[in-house]
């Protein structure tokens, strides 16, 4: 019994620190002259929201609102992270200290992964990090106990990506919320990007 326990413990430890496999996306329509690339991280209960291409001068309401993506907000990614079978998807942004060691972000039943996106250059991008606490209910013959974990969201912040540049959005680890953006160099070096308040265009009548 003891050897089996040891084997299971070693296997669990390996799963807790292993990197999610990376899928290199092919046939991408990335135009370095008009677009930038952004890497977002996520895992079960913890994800990043990005709204890209915000243009308050545009007449089209959709362009004024921008394009919104949420990492881990779909059941496939959340379940994959839960069971440790999720995959990261890359558009070619160079590896950084974060992506190389993504397994260190893993939590219990929460494997970390990343997604990379192309965004319009020269237009505002809003980003936000969030942690969604769990809710558990235990019922006994005499009482019902409800355990609710706290949730949090970072401030919604913004930056303007430059054409042909790569960026990485990083949130605080664990059950904490905060957001930072780095420009990624050709060798994976990181340069902090100064963030501004989130941009929200006024509705035109």
Provide structural commentary.
The chain is α+β, with helices and mostly antiparallel strands. It has helices at 2-17, 61-65, 75-83, 97-100; strands at 22-24, 35-42, 46-54, 67-70, 88-90, 113-120, 124-131, 135-139, 144-148, 152-153, 157-159, 166-171, 179-184, 190-192, 196-197. The strands form four sheets. Strands 3, 4, 7, 10, 11 and 15 form a six-stranded antiparallel beta sheet that branches. Strands 6-2-12-13-14 form a five-stranded mixed beta sheet, with no helix packed on it. The protein has a two-stranded parallel ribbon with strand order 1-5.
What is the overall number of helices? 4
What order do the helices and strands follow? HEEEHEHEHEEEEEEEEEE
Termini separation comes to 71 Å
Q: Indicate the structural class.
A: alpha+beta
- How would you describe the shape? globular
């Amino acid at each position: 019994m003891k050897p089996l326990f040891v084997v299971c413990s070693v296997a669990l430890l390996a799963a807790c620190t292993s990197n999610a496999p990376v899928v290199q996306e092919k046939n991408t329509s990335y135009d370095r002259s008009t677009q930038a690339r952004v890497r977002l991280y996520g895992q079960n209960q913890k994800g990043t929201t990005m709204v890209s291409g915000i243009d308050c001068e545009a007449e089209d309401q959709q362009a004024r609102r921008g394009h919104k993506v949420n990492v881990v907000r779909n059941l496939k990614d959340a379940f994959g992270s839960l069971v440790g079978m999720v995959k990261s998807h890359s558009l070619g942004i160079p590896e950084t200290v974060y992506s190389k060691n993504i397994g260190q972000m893993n939590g219990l039943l929460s494997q970390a992964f990343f997604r990379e996106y192309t965004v319009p250059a020269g237009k505002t991008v809003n980003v936000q990090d969030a942690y969604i606490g769990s809710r558990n209910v235990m019922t006994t013959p005499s009482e019902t106990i409800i355990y609710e974990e706290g949730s949090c969201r970072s401030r919604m912040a913004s930056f303007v990506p430059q054409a042909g540049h790569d960026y990485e959005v990083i949130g605080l680890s664990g059950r904490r919320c905060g957001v930072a953006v780095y420009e990624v160099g050709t060798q994976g070096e990181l340069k902090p990007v100064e963030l501004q308040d989130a941009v929200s265009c006024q509705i035109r009548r």
